[in-house]
Structures are given as C-alpha cells and as structure tokens.
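2024-03-11 09:14:02 INFO worker-7 job=invfold-0412 stage=load source=structure_tokens
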C-alpha cells in the first residue's frame, strides 16, 4: 500500500527527475505511465487529471494533485537532507531549480524532443537546430564553470537541485546532440549523481 501515485511520461526528463527523487528517497508509489500522443494521455487530459495540462503530476492520498516537476521535487524533499532549511541555502537550491526551468529545460530538453519525437520532426528546421545547439552549449558552459570548482551545483553536498538538473543534462549528448566532450566537469558530476545510492536510470520504469 502506498499513499502516492505518480502520473509520469516514461520518456520525459521532467518525469524522470521525480521518479529518480522517489527512488533516492526510497519512497514507494504507484506509477501511471502516460506516453506522448497516446489515447491514454488524451483521456487523462479529457478527464482533467492534469491540473496544468502537463506531466508529471503527483497525486496524494486525499486526491490532491501536484503538477510541475520542480514543485513536486520540493514537496517530496521537504524535511529531508535534500532540501535545506537555512534560508540562504534554500535560496541557492531554488535558484538553480528556477534556472533549470527558465534557461536550461527550454533549450536542452527541446532539442532532444525535436530529435526524438517523430511528430515534432517538422519543427526541427536546420536554423532552429543550429540555434538550439549554440544556446545549449552556452547553457552547459554555465554549468561547467560552476562544476569546475564545486562537486555539487548548489551546496557542498548533493541537493534536490542536482537531481533537477541531472534529468536532462545526463542525456544532453545522446538525445540532444550536444558535444559533451567540451564539459569534463559536467561529466564528472553526472558520474557522481549516478553513483548516489538508490539511483535509477531513465529507462527504469516501475511496474
Ligand atoms: N514545466 C513543466 C513541464 C512539463 C511538460 O512539459 N511535460 C510534457 C512532457 S516533458 C507533457 O506533459 N507533454 C504531454 C502533453 O503536453 O500532452 C514541468 O516541469 O513539469
């Protein structure tokens, strides 16, 4: 028995970051996988299960539904070592998470999506792909600078900000076509996150 149900998209980094956090926390949950452009996700939209129209959504025992991956991460990690209480530390962690949504995800994840989903292929014009490549390398350079002299993004220990940024960064090369040989500090950080006890891969979808 579990009090949590996660509606998540198996192929999506936004959903993966929540599945990964739940695994690292060792929290059991029921999983409902809804893949892109399937009758099941259309039904979820029609039934109003997705409060802001997107996945992931975490449903609590009282049927409260929490949308937005980073809001879910904060909900799950409150009162754990992954989310600091100290206001300065908290601001540092949340700053990286807001940065992920407003600078990183819209470039790194979008280029990967244009290369992954057939239905988006017509949007992947050479001009757009070149622009996303350039912007993505700039975003990754920003992370590289930080990680060149920090083991973890926000604090001197792993926090929920690392899990948030890891989701799309770890596959930026394989899925998004970014040149990860330029970013040794990011690659070392990816290895550190992957070595955290309880880590699961994007492909490790619960039954
Ligand atoms: N800012 C949102 C973005 C969520 C989002 O874009 N979800 C996509 C998958 S990555 C989705 O639900 N697509 C399905 C649809 O729009 O029908 C978050 O972080 O949760």
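2024-03-11 09:14:09 INFO worker-7 stage=emit residues=207
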């Amino acid at each position: 028995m579990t009090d949590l149900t996660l509606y998540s998209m198996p192929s999506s980094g936004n959903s993966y970051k929540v599945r990964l956090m739940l695994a690292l926390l060792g929290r059991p949950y029921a999983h409902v996988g809804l893949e892109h452009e399937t009758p099941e996700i259309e039904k979820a939209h029609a039934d109003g299960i997705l409060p802001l129209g997107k996945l992931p959504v975490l449903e609590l025992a009282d049927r409260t539904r929490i949308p937005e991956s980073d809001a879910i991460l904060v909900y799950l990690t409150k009162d754990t070592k992954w989310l600091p209480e100290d206001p300065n530390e908290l601001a540092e962690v949340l700053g990286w998470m807001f940065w992920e949504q407003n600078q990183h995800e819209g470039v790194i994840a979008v280029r990967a999506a244009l290369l992954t989903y057939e239905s988006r292929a017509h949007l992947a014009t050479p001009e757009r792909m070149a622009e996303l490549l350039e912007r993505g390398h700039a975003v990754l350079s920003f992370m590289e600078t930080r990680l060149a002299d920090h083991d973890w993004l926000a604090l001197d220990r792993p926090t929920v900000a690392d899990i948030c940024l890891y989701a799309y960064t770890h596959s930026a090369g394989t899925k998004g076509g970014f040149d990860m040989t330029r970013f040794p500090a990011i690659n070392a950080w990816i290895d550190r996150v992957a070595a955290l006890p309880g880590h699961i891969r994007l492909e490790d979808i619960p039954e």
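2024-03-11 09:14:09 INFO worker-7 stage=report msg="The helical segments are 13-25, 39-46, 69-77, 87-116, 126-148, 160-169, 184-194."
2024-03-11 09:14:10 INFO worker-7 job finished
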